[in-house]
Amino acid sequence: MSEQKKKIGFTVACVNEFAKQHNLSAQEAFRYLFHFKGIAFIKENYDIEHTLDFETILEDLGVLCRRNGGIL
Questions:
Q1: Which of 1, 24, 25, 53 makes an SS bond possible with 29, Cβ 3.0 to 4.6 Å?
Q2: Residue 14 pLDDT
Q3: How far apart are CA 44 and CA 25, in angstroms?
Q4: pTM > 0.85
Q5: How far is CA 50 from CA 12, 13, 40, 68, in A?
Q6: pLDDT of res. 1
Q7: Which of 17, 20, 26, 62 is nearest to 41 (CA)?
Q8: pLDDT bracket for residue 72 (50, 70, 90)
Q9: Can you tell me whether residue 48 is helix, strand or coil?
Q10: Are 22 and 29 in contact (CB under 8 A)?
Q11: Which helix (H) or strand (E) holds 54?
């Protein structure tokens, strides 16, 4: 599997887990994460984030999004 496919799969998994945690649809979760820079964070920090468990990743995303104006 190519590195790009791995990154896309990881990003999709993060969005889906974030959606579950916050009772959102995947589309709502993606929009929220995109708007508050969570998607950019995942892309920029893939090398580290993909080695962590989802609980930690979701915590990281929550902190980042709140810093950027998110309220979830």
A1: 24
A2: 97
A3: 24
A4: yes
A5: 12, 10, 14, 22
A6: 80
A7: 62
A8: confident
A9: helix
A10: yes
A11: helix 54-67
Q: At what angle do helices 54-67 and 3-21 cross, to 10 degrees?
A: 80
* DSSP-assigned states of every residue in 1-41: --HHHHHHHHHHHHHHHHHHHTT--HHHHHHHHHHTTHHHH
In one-letter notation, the amino acid at residue 33 is L
How far, in Å, CA of 18 to CA of 24, rounded? 8
State the Rg of the chain over Cα: 11
CA-to-CA distance for 45 and 55, rounded, in angstroms? 16
Average pLDDT, integer, range 37-59: 95
Q: What distances in angstroms separate CA 28 from CA 4, 21, 24, 58, 59, one per listed residue?
A: 23, 12, 6, 15, 18
Residue 57 amino acid letter: I
